[in-house]
Design brief:
Elements lengths: L5 E8 L2 E8 L1 H18 L12 H32 L8 E6 L6 E8 L13 E6 L4 H14 L2 E4 L11 E10 L2 E14 L21 E7 L13 E15 L5 H6 L5 H35 L6 H21 L9 H28 L6 H13 L5 H10 L1 H5 L2 H16 L1 E6 L2 H10 L36
Parallel strand pairs: 5-11
Antiparallel strand pairs: 1-2, 2-4, 3-4, 6-10, 7-8, 7-10, 9-10
Length: about 475
């Protein structure tokens, strides 16, 4: 009869557990003998027939490597057995340390772990969340159609001698100078610039209004004080500009023929498609607002201790972003001490882990599952983000199933959010898309410095203005 595993609890405090485990020497020896017999059937040793190699010879040649495999397997199996017997769900991989082992003796090791806390069951009906609603106005559809028409414009050369106006496109050569010296990156040829687009730094485009094809214009501008290139910050510069052509935009007529050119049956069908897209945009922003307010409510209602290991992993990931942001001079961290930043981001890390656990356990309690169709939709959404490369994105996930598996967590989390939004009390509130977007920009969303990453000028030295701030992507529990 196999000797029983010996388990002694050393610590049971909060979420921390510690055990001393002893695997009997007889069990270790039994497994060593079994594996040596397996080796004997597969190895060829001169002077011995396969399967007839004496155990002593096998131990001399393979004993050390077999013993290592047996110890690793014994520790893994015993650890699993302990967790099963104690009915423990570890928050992270348990820390295992062998404390004693000599050949022929018992194997002793310690297991240290933190268990996953049990999040509270809430009376969700007591949580009240506003649900933004709106009717899509015809004026908004008309504005969207005008934008589509403008984006499908053509350009027509203006008559000789006709002056450039705001909205026209000029094809230019330009060269920038600091004093009498040309500066690196300040030159371009046959560049198409729409006047009034704000593509170049303030003042540049305005000085080309009124120019004609064939003109040579001197443009004097001062670079912004926050320009990314140190040698150009706040500097007065001169650009010599040659106008090759002036073209006026020709906006297509909004009719059935135009709609058919876009692949729609008629103008009415195009309007329907635009209305549906506006509604989807609205619903997306509205859901983000509800999700934010839901998380705020859950943050107050779900108060429980989180595993230190999970908290540390989350905080360390955030702090790496903070360090990068400090190096880049990000305004989100500028002027703050490390102590103040750590206090701020420790609270964020705790919130993320706590709400992550709650969402995961909500999904489990309500049997929410991620199926193949969910994963397929997620892959298609990823593919649509890379126009022209959709097939490559799909092929990537087909060849890397481990990357596909990583999508399960975020998908399950969103399913949990959708479920919770069906359980809380929703109160409708009329809001326009503009109001939603304005609130999103002005409200104090919790962000990591990484949310500000990517703000830079388009190309070094060229008279481009700083890129507009990106709408910060909200993390799962921000």
């Amino acid at each position: 009869m196999a000797q029983a595993l010996q388990i002694k609890e050393k610590e049971n405090k909060g979420l921390k557990r510690s055990f001393e485990v002893v695997v009997p020497a007889s069990e270790i020896e039994k497994e060593v003998v079994r594996q040596l017999q397996q080796v004997s059937r597969n190895v060829k040793i001169p002077g011995f027939r396969p399967g007839k190699v004496p155990e002593k010879v096998l131990r001399q040649r393979y004993g050390q490597s077999v013993m290592g495999d047996v110890i690793n397997a014994a520790v893994n199996k015993a650890t699993t057995d302990v967790l099963d017997k104690q009915k423990l769900v570890p928050a992270l991989q348990p820390d295992v340390k062998i404390t004693k082992f000599e050949e022929g003796s018992d194997l002793s090791f310690d297991i240290e772990l933190e268990v996953m806390p049990e999040s509270p069951t809430l009376d969700l009906a007591k949580i009240s969340i506003e649900k933004p609603v709106a009717e899509i106005e015809e004026a908004k559809i008309h504005e969207a159609l005008e934008r589509i028409a403008r984006s499908n414009r053509s350009l027509q050369d203006k008559a000789d001698g006709e002056k450039a106006q705001k909205g026209d496109v000029v094809r230019i050569d330009f060269k920038g100078f600091l004093g009498d010296e040309a500066f690196e990156g300040g030159e371009g040829r046959n560049f198409n610039l729409e006047l009034g687009s704000g593509q170049f730094i303030p003042g540049f485009e305005d000085q080309l209004i009124g120019a004609k094809a064939g003109d040579e214009v001197t443009v004097n501008v001062t670079f912004p004080k926050d320009y990314h290139a140190a040698n150009l910050k706040g500097q007065k510069t001169r650009f010599d500009v040659k106008i090759h052509a002036v073209q006026a935009p020709v906006i297509p007529t909004m009719d059935d023929a135009f709609a058919q050119g876009l692949g729609m049956e008629s103008l009415e069908k195009l309007k329907d498609a635009v209305r549906d897209q506006i509604q989807r945009d609205y619903d997306s922003v509205a859901r983000n607002r509800m999700k934010k307010h839901l998380f705020d409510a859950l943050d107050s209602a779900c108060s429980f201790a989180v595993p230190e290991g999970m908290f540390k992993l989350e905080f360390d990931a955030i702090w790496r972003q903070v360090e990068e942001a400090k190096e880049q001079g990000d305004p989100a961290v500028k002027g703050k001490t490390d102590a103040a930043l750590k206090k701020e981001y420790e609270a964020i890390a705790d919130r993320r882990v706590r709400l992550g656990i709650f969402l995961s356990q909500t999904a489990g309690r309500n049997n929410l599952q991620v199926d193949r169709a969910d994963l397929s939709r997620a892959v298609m959404e990823q593919a649509r983000m890379y126009p022209g490369q959709e097939s490559k994105i799909i092929e990537f996930y087909q060849k890397h199933p481990e990357q596909l598996a990583e999508m399960r967590g975020p998908i399950l989390e969103e399913k949990a959010v959708d479920f919770l939004l069906t359980q809380v009390t929703l109160t409708e509130k009329k809001m326009t898309l503009e109001q939603l977007m304005e609130e999103q920009e002005s409200e104090s969303f919790t962000q990591t410095p990484a949310d500000h990453a990517g703000d830079s000028d388009d190309q070094d030295g060229k008279p481009k203005k700083a890129a507009a701030k990106k709408t910060a992507s909200k993390k799962k529990s921000d």
